[in-house]
Structures are given as structure tokens and as C-alpha cells.
Amino acid sequence: MDELIPLSQAMLGEIPSSITVPNYDRRALRPGIVHIGLGNFHRAHQAWYTHRLMQMGLAQDWAIIGAGVRPGDTAMREKLLAQDCLSTLIELDPAGKSAEITGAMLDFLPVESDNATLIARMAQADIGIVSLTVTEGGYYLDPETGGLDAGHEDIRHDASRPSAPRTAFGAMVAALRLRRERGSGPFTSLCCDNLQGNGMILRQTVVGLARLSDPDLADWIDAECSFPNSMVDCIVPATGPREIALAHSFGIADAAPVTHETFRQWVIEDEFCAGRPDWDRVGAVFSSDVHVYEAMKIRILNGGHQVICGAGELLGLGTVAATMAHDRIRAMFRKIARDEIAPHVPAVPGGAALDYIGLIERRFANPEILDTTRRVAFDGSSRHAGFLLPSIRDALARGTPLEGLALASALWARYCLGVREDGSVIAANDPLWPSLQAAARAAQETPAAWLEQVSLYRDVKHAPRFADAFVHWYGLIASRGVNAAISGYLARQTA
């Protein structure tokens, strides 16, 4: 093939005409957003919406400054700064691939142990929004109460050293303290993680952390700052050699390209205390009832990932698409979603839950999206509790079916043993992996021991209907294997 064009501002004019590039003067952009936890999802989602506004001549003062609080974020920073914070987005559609270059991001702050540069930048008056993607398990929730885990080592550190915090939330508190002192006003804190009521959870974390060191500041943040709830949706695989090769196929040398599906959705409460871009001009939805959108997406899409990934991993099916190509797993997903999740999901404007299930089934089955079962299985301790437990709890309260949800939990318990059915090893894939493995080993002797994990099963662990179903399916998986257990579930559901 022809020589690759290195992605940079200076080389944009050399990019093939089939690839859309920024038509705006990036030198004239002014920052308005700091995004913490800048990875593939943000670049395919929030940054894309902002870029599309800029292509229309809008949002020129809402450019994005990237940031990270983990040492691992340094590698992404170096890659993006080397290419002037430009990103190649490659849309993966079975009908054909397409690419565009986005340029809404201007800088990526240094990653520091005390977050000094991040605090200073958020404290400047031109920043109106601080947004985050720090994973569902990153909000320091107490596993028993759901409130802020004030005893966590990181929270104790930030409460005792508020000017040199180690967490993103401590950095936000420190920046807001400076803004209050300078009279430059609050900023909007915008969560873009898959948590129901994510704005309320972010408020709880930020205000709760501030209250541990400065109650007056906590009151000011609670009264003056806004924390809109939002629902985000786009399947965005991790970047590896295949994705870099895809960028090469378009003639571009990009060290961190992003692949994504054709579908995007973003629903946001219109509560922004310091202004916002008009993201609705490019497809986002501002709604006063984000919760119904959240419930449908989190329970069916995110919950659906947890339904299928344990079985897929145990059978050595490496991608979500390969898992959905397995007839029994696909049928299991369809039945659990239809019979055990959808009854508890309210309709959203313009769409019923059963229609949404069909959409998700098609998205999961897209063979161009090489989204790994390992990625969607990561942090199951947060995702099972957040995405499946609400449906289990509703089923218990309403007397509706829950056999498939119990089966999904049993498959996950078997997965946490760390060995696939072919004997290959499943590497650690959860922040709580050691304790999960200990519980999984105990379940080999006494299956109900798995349910004794209070942080995961809380009030449902002793519910006889769920516990009995879990024990049944775990025993069948252990004695006859994954396929037999799924077949037994499908037969029982159709009997």
C-alpha cells in the first residue's frame, strides 16, 4: 500500500478525501470541558458529539482538555499528544467501514500523584463542565449502604490531604474550593459512566468527600454545582493491533484509533450551571426523565452483556459476536431479556422494551465489532450488582420469572473459578478477583456459599426462590457443563 500518513495537525491536508477531517480552525478553539478518564469510549461518544457541533461552526468555546488520575493514563496521553490530540474514528458496519478524524480535544494534562495540574486547570473560570468516565466501580460506593465508602483508603487520604488528592473526586473538590475562593463560580459535573442515577451518585461522591474535610464547601457545592443524570450508549471495543491495522487500511498512522458501532445514544438532564454545548443539534436528547432511558439501556444492554459473557468465556468464545452466533446462548439472552428483564423496564418515548431487545440482539451480533467477552466480563462484581440485581429484586417482589437471572449468576460464579471448560486459564479480571475466587472455590462444595457475598447479593441472597434456582443451575453447570445448563433452562422456559 502507499506510505502511511502520520496523524497530526500539519498532515490533515494529506488525508484522503474519502475521510472527513475537521473543517474548523482548531487554533481558534477555546477550552470549556475537562474530561477525566479519557479513553476510547469518550472519544467515540462525547468528543464525537462535540466535534460534530464544531463541524457546524458551533461550540467553538467547548473544546476538551483530557485528564487522567491513574499511572496507566500516561501511555494514552503520550500517544494522543504525539498526534496533536486528533483521533481516527472507524465505524464498523457489516455493510462497510468508514473513517473520520475528530479534533475537539486540544490537550491532555500531565498525570500526577497529587493532581496539581488537573486541579489548577479545573479551577480556571473558562471550564464550565468536568465530565468523567472512570468505570462503574470507580465511585467509592459502600457495598452495604450504597453511600460513600468513607472508610476506603483513597477517600481517607483525600479527606486528610485535600490539597493533594489522589482521586478524581478529590481533585474536583480541590478545584471547586479554589473557584469559590476566587469567586469564579461552580462547574457542572457530568458523569458518563453506566450507572443508574449517575449524576446523583457523582453528587454523593463529590459532596460526601468534601464534607469530610470542609462542610461549608460541601454545602456550597451541593447548592451551586449541577450534576445532571445522563445515559450513554455506544459499543466501543478496546484498541489493539487489529484496530491499528484498520487505521492503516485507510492510509493513516494513528497510534490510538477508535473503532465503534453505527449506533450512538446520549440522553442528558438539562441541568448545567455554567453553560453547555447544544449537543441536541447533533443527536443527543435533553430530557427531564433520563431514568427511563437508563433503566432500559442498563438492564437490557449492560445486563445482557453480563447474561452472555460468562457462558461465552467458559466456552472459549472470545467475542460478543461469536457468543451471539452460538444458538443456545443467543436464545438464552433473548428469553432472559424478554421474560425476566423487560417486564420491569418502562417504555421510553418512541420505543418499547421488546423492540429494544431486538435492537440489542442485532448490535451484539455485529461481526465487525470485535468486542471481547473478557472486556464486558471485567469488574463483574460491580456490573452484576448494578445491572442484574435490580431485575432479580423486581422479579422477587412481583413473583415473575427469574430462573435465567439465577443461571447468569451461576455462570459467573463458575467463571470466577478462573478455568474454562477446555482447561485454559482465565486471567484475573476483576478488582475483587481474589475474594471472588475464594467464594467460587467454596461454591464447589456448597453452591449457596457464593451468595454469601453481601456486597454482591445484599437483600436477595437468602430469598429462597432465587437461592434455590442458583443452586440448581450451579449444580447442573458443574456436573454436565455450560451447554447442558443452558439447554435445561431453554427447555424449562418453553415447557
UniProtKB/TrEMBL annotation:
Residues 289-474 form the Mannitol dehydrogenase C-terminal domain. Residues 32-280 form the Mannitol dehydrogenase N-terminal domain. The keyword Magnesium does not apply. Keywords: Oxidoreductase. GO terms for molecular function: oxidoreductase activity, acting on the CH-OH group of donors, NAD or NADP as acceptor. SUPFAM superfamilies: 6-phosphogluconate dehydrogenase C-terminal domain-like, NAD(P)-binding Rossmann-fold domains. InterPro entries: 6-PGluconate_DH-like_C_sf, 6PGD_dom2, Mannitol_DH, Mannitol_DH/Oxidoreductase, Mannitol_DH_C, Mannitol_DH_N, NAD(P)-bd_dom_sf. PANTHER family: MANNITOL DEHYDROGENASE 2-RELATED, MANNITOL DEHYDROGENASE DSF1-RELATED. This is Mannitol dehydrogenase family protein. It comes from Rhabdonatronobacter sediminivivens. The lineage of its organism: Bacteria, Pseudomonadati, Pseudomonadota, Alphaproteobacteria, Rhodobacterales.
